[in-house]
Amino acid sequence: MTAEVVAEVAPLPGSRCQASRGVLCAGRAEAKAGSSSGGAMARAWQHPFLNVFRHFRVDEWKRSAKQGDVAVVTDKTLKGAVYRIRGSVSAANYIQLPKSSTQSLGLTGRYLYVLFRPLPSKHFVIHLDVSTKDNQVIRVSFSNLFKEFKSTATWLQFPFVLEARTPQTDLVGSAPPGARWTCLQLDLQDVLLVYLNRCYGHLKSVRLCASLLVRNLYTSDLCFEPAISGAQWAKLPVTPMPREMAFPVPKGESWHDRYIHIRFPRDSLKVPSKPIEKSCSPPETVLLGPGPQPFPCPVASSKPVRFSVSPVVQMPSPTASGRAPLAPRPFLEVSLSQERSDASNADGPSFHSLESWAQVEASDAHTAAADTHVLTHESAEVPVALEDTGSCEGFLPDPVLRLKGVIGFGGHSTRQALWTPDGAAVVYPCHAVIVVLLVDTGEQRFFLGHTDKVSALALDGSSSLLASAQARAPSVTRLWDFQTGQCLCLFQSPMHVVCSLSFSDSGALLCGVGKDHHGRTMVVAWGTGQVGLGGEVVVLAKAHTDFDVQAFRVTVFDETRMASCGQGSVRLWRLRGGALRSCPVDLGEYHALQFTDLAFKQAQDGCPEPSAAMLFVCSRSGHILEIDCQRMVVRHARRLLPTQTPGGPHPQKQTFSLGPGIAISSLSVSPAVCAVGSEDGFLRLWPLDFSSVLLEAEHEGPVSSVRVSPDGLRVLSATSSGHLGFLDTLSRVYHMLARSHTAPVLALAMEQRRGQLATVSQDRTVRIWDLATLQQLYDFTSSEDAPCTVTFHPTRPTFFCGFSSGAVRSFSLEAAEVLVEHTCHRGAITGLTATPDGRLLFSSCSQGSLAQYSCADPRWHVLRVAADMVCPDAPASPCALAVSRDGRLLAFVGPSRCTVTVMGSASLDELLRVDIGALDLASGRLDSAMAVCFGPAALGHLLVSTSSNRVVVLDAASGRAIRELPGVHPEPCPSLTLSEDARFLLIATGRTVKVWDYATQASPGPQVYIGHSEPVQAVAFSPDQQQVLSAGDAVFLWDILATTESDQSFPGAPPACEAGPGTGPLEDAASRASELPRQQVPKPSRASPPRLGVCARPLEGGDGTFSTSDEEGPCEESCDPEGLGQASGPPVPTEEEAGRAGDGAWAAAVGSWGLALPPRPPGQPRARDTRNSGTPRTTYLASYKSFTPARVSCSPHSAKGTSLPPASGGWLRLKAVVGYGGNGRANMVWRPDTGFFAYTCGRLVVVEDLHSGAQQHWPGHPAEISTLALSHSAQVLASASGHSSTTAHCQIRVWDVSGGLCQHLISHHSTTVLALAFSPDDRLLVTLGDHDGRTLALWGTATYDLVSYTRLPEPVHGVAFNPWDAGELTCVGQGTVTFRLLQQRGADVSLQVHREPVPEAVGAGELTSLCYGAPPLLYCGTSSGQVCVWDTRAGRCFLSWEADDGGIGLLLFSGSRLVSGSSTGRLRLWAVGAVSELRCKGSGARSSSVFMEHELLLDGAVVSASFDDSVDMGIVGTTAGTLWFVSWAEGTSTRLISGHRSKVNEVVFSPGESHGATCSEDGSVRVWALASMELVIQFQVLNQSCLCLAWSPRCCGRPEQQRLAAGYGDGSLRIFSVSRTAMELKMHPHPVALTTVAFSSDGQTVLSGDKDGLVAVSHRCTGTTFRVLSDHQGAPISTICVTCRECGDLGVEGTDLWLAASGDQRVSVWASDWLRNRCELVDWLSFPMPATTETQGHLPPSLAAFCPWDGALLMYVGPGVYKEVIIYNFCQKQVVEKIPLPFFAMSLSLSPGTHLLAVGFAGLHRPPGCSSQPPATRSWCGRFSAAEMQQGLWCWASRLVTPGTWTQAWQRSQVVNGPHAGTGQDHVNLLDQAVVNLAT
Predict the structure, then answer these.
(1) In the chain, what is the straight-line distance between the N-terminal and C-terminal CA atoms, in Å?
(2) Tens digit of each residue's pLDDT (9 = 90 or more) over 954-969
(3) What is the pLDDT of residues 1668-1703, one digit of tens each?
(4) How far is CA 1603 from CA 1029, 1616, 1683, in A?
(5) Which of 111, 848, 1263, 1872 could crosslink 872 through cysteines, CB 3.0-4.6 Å?
(6) What is the Cα Rg of the chain in Å?
(7) Helix (H, G, I), strand (E, B), or coil: what is residue 1600?
């Protein structure tokens, strides 16, 4: 289930978040696979391998079974006895282990070895039943009968390819005459991980079916190589096959010439380019990165010809987390010599063959095949050889889609709807999906696995087990763990079709009713008590009956008793002695009735005896019979009859008497009432004596099912027209839960502005839905003319619909009526689409005509009609017509099926006609086009799906074929679409949805998603590209679990886009989102910091407070650093959201990442931008270390020359800062020996005690601090800031660590200082300017005078002193390492420069980081992820290795260990002790001796780090604004400090002042404990900015019922429950961004204002907006303030007094009583506009608030003639006082306890009345820029001042700066960081 909001509870201090640890095994790959109940002892007897036939004594047939022709024969090749299984029918001739299906083998070995030989010209089948760790049984089958791979949730079918085939022959079929003995090695763990994302538990059973010879079966945790002898084993890092398992090989012959070895799935062994030398460190297994993904089938090949598939098949990477790596290995080498590897490709890197080690050793032919991969696509006729494309990283997470919501109900029947025992949720089927809907919140979760419509549901009394059966014969029944959603058991029922299921209350008994193969009614009882404990379902009894059964129930009072009813019968059943017996109830005169439903009622006295139970049965004639279960007789009979008032059209309340009755379809009984649903559409509630109707509700269709909730307060009802809802008996309100089409959906369309969805269906309706809530908004029905297609107008509230009569009509969503109708077509409309600008509309019909319409005005008209243009008789399809994204081109299939025509959309001139017809060899028919769609305009691609299962990509301008995706679907697809970033290709095929990685040329194949029970007719991306919709039997809404890019600029026709190194984080988003093990080196991943994102999932086993979110709009931040779930992906900002934000937050993010080029697709090599290489540039993509300070406001009301009050007499004291400046670089220092810990947050240096949490704050910098440096003596700290508009040079401050005082203030650089470093003797300080300044300065630390400076010829990214020689320092930058020697002549110091270029083998990236190692080594990191090692004495680079995928921004060395941090967020620990020994080898050195010991994945690019001397523990900072404590020994990372990622917009307090809440541009709402300033709860909404916040008042309920209201940039408003840590309600009262929100005094009403000046009044409980005030329309609402006050003295009635202030200097005061829906205007205030010269167009906000200590006063600040606070008395209607201000106010708040007024300015925070004194006497804490607001929460403690006049300073109280109004301004210097004044 996917919710909108992430509610997260912050970890307690010291808590650890630890991921699964890797397992290192030297010399072999060993995985630990076992059942959930088995431990190490349970597996010990199976190690190292187990002979299955011997252990289970197959020859005795006691613990195994044989069937048919099974015999023991002697094989000449093996010279021993084998079992022969033959017969014409495989299912009738087999060996089965164990003997009974109720038993289990319990074999936990990861690998299963099957030694067999197929019989010539015969087929064989091997069935394996594998149990997962959650006790789900999966059947895995291999056979040469299978033509293609098939997969369901419980069955995997793999085709077995026996021999090499030519292109003219099939890849599967009967065994050839010369079939050889085969060793089939099955990796059961990987099979489940790859295809079903399941964890392997144990092997349950094996069935070997004819026709084959089998020698034996073995299981083991070891990966054996069958062809390796003892001598060869000494040279190769593999484990030889034990003698007992080995095939005999005659002397002098090759193993591969006689036998076949198949490893499936193909393992990750990589063939080296040459044999491994003995001198290498211990034998290692080399893993290959992901390459082309072949067809999923084991292949046996006789020789490596071109058309064969290699015997070892490579498979997609597993998707489960926590998979142990196979073995340690050295990373990929980069040789610095000029020699080329033998296996290298001249055109670039090549894929190596994945042959086994033995084949490489034994046959040169196998090695020769290493240059090309031969890839077999699904359903492909001929294998396709892919070209070498480099290391192709898998781009898509697996899965990339997750089902979020379903629009639909029923399918097979609408009678299946249940309450959960707690009454909080409703369970119902939607075709093949089972939905659990929370009735209070509307959230859905799903049970997926059925492949056909669900026909029956049953839930036990404890909500533990859910049973479901699907309709299509043979019926399959599933048992689910209701709490976790896992399928516990799947079994085939003895019945052909299951019609009804019923659980006993304990869940130990399940009864089902259905039909057998002959159509007879059958009742089956299953025992399910052991399912949850790992057992299986057992058939207890079954019985046939000739009586009709329409309903069947197990009684509550006795689990062995049941009842049934049907045509003319009511029977009572009993289970006894393994048999089901029944006896009829004496119905007397009612024996001919057709009974439809029944229900039990417990006696009022609570007697548990069966005699005390009464049974109620209803019939289609309107009768309700009350039956005594003991006497089995009818006690009472009543009948529901219609009664009409004379002349009245509607029936009155019903009575029971004689006459024609109303058909009753369902009834439900509670201890007090009986609910009855009838076919006249009424739900009626009766007392049990049926004296009169208590309540009734009329529905739009016949009621098919009713259920009373367990508490008896709600009645669930379902109708045959697809409606599901419930009646609340207390409030007498009917709530609709779900609506549904009653026939398949034909097409869909989406509207972006309102977030609406339109669907057309075969039920002749057009329905409009709200995408956010999935609720139906409108329903248009046409009884005569069937709708076929639909599309929205892009800009107006109008949609167009095409009908079967040829009419095209436009509908108004505002008036809900038809606007215009055109009938220019003669046939049914097959296509309908509009241009993106909404100016043109196109339609096509089945007669082949094409029409063009002008939609420039609402009365749209026909422009042109062209006949014989479109292919006639084509079915209606969403992709029949396609308009390019820029609106210039129109494409369609026509005039014939084999041609695709492209026209100019405006002129309808034919530009291109492409013939895609080709002979389909499989069918012998000519290929034809099915659907068309355009890609992004920049690409110029036109995609065409064909009838021969292809998708052809054409150049829309020339018509040439760019690429082709063969075998993408087994049947023609009616709909396909490409995402706006050209990343995902979406295809509807059959009953599945397929997603392709379109950007990757060597795509491994699609991801397939099931859930639809009928063919999918349409697929589409949501307008924000964050979701996918598929329509068929129902409408499915899927979340995209991957970061999508917006506003990409594509470089040209090829889909592969170049990218800079800054795209590194995006490349790994897939593996991190789905927790994939990286397909590189098997390096341990001990722990990763938890993060949430679009691909985030609830943490299993958690406390239930987590839910994921997905909102509209492009994604600015793809993950949240505070999440407690697993990581979903790195932060990937996009420009579109940044452009909307319009503040310094985006500037900092872009500068830190250096994003300037679109991300490259996976598999494409990194490319440097070499254009204008000779010209100095200000942006350098290669280094993410570039520091970009946040923009500083230049508005005239920004404060200058402000200062801080003295410590002895200040008004405010900074108490705490929560946050870390992730925009800085090396801006954190920590010394473990002294405990000194300091970091930056904006313009502050924060010194914190890690034990007590106490902070010191060192202010003074005029701009954001960029970097820090601590002297080696730890006595001096240097800090440098970025460029400031108030100073000509960047400041560098030198601090005394012991006293916390600034000792020196120096400056030289005119641009940002990028790096600082002290010399080893602390006598010198070097400072480095950024890429614009390019200056290097040297300072003497005695007086801090400038001793030398130089202008650098190229940008430099890092500088460091040589720790062994204080006279040498090194700089790294673009392509060179610069060694600088200090030469001193008297007082003059000069720098002697020596440059060394970077060798070409290191790569074209820039050097971005450096650190010195053991003498004389220097380690340098590059922007491409390489680490190179230099000999500083020789001045040469002798070693390099690939250390990461992204740029290396940090390197630290100590002892023999190296720490690297990269832009991808990876922190890695390397063992480099052997590097010194490699120095003597020079450029021929190899990196085999460098190993990675540990790895951690953090929440952003690593920018700072400090470790102890042993590098066992340290503190690391990231660009996400988080400081992590890292322990390599424990493999953990603990969050120390973390703030909001971007600008904080508002802060509010709880009524008891124990907690505060903040909201931010990053979409998060965080709740803080004010005592400790610890994060308690976080609510996260992705892709939206949270702009305003309000806390519910104290009077709205108990403290545990406190709520938060948050307003967002898309106009939505969400209500969060603080106690439940969940979102209660989402409403959408505004079409534009909200600016302010407030609760009414009773907390039941929410008032919200938006930037257009509208004020909406909404119910908190229902979300209904019942009043909209437009008095301020045209100016943004700055603030809304509410106070509880009787308004009688003002001449109006009301309990609340509230005001609204807008940006046009107007304030309205209102009196309201919302319970009585009263709202009257009390007063209207208008203030004069300021002079233009004062503001220069940057108006501050207009703010107003009621005075809490004087109910008649109102405070106002805003732009005016004077800078002042205006105090207005609305009782006297006049201004009573004015307080002058030094600047225009940007925020305002009043203390509710004492006479305190807080005013915030754009540049500083000053109490009213303070005079502006010189800086020397009144220093202040500086002016705070937007960067500081991004990085932390600032808390201030005030001092006591004697109260008096308004000009006095601030008093002791709780004060908050906010709300922050003034939409439209760039509040860079506003206190967006939420400055809080806390009492000391």
Answers:
(1) 45
(2) 988 888 888 887 655 5
(3) 999 999 999 999 999 988 887 787 888 899 999 998
(4) 33, 5, 18
(5) 848
(6) 37
(7) helix
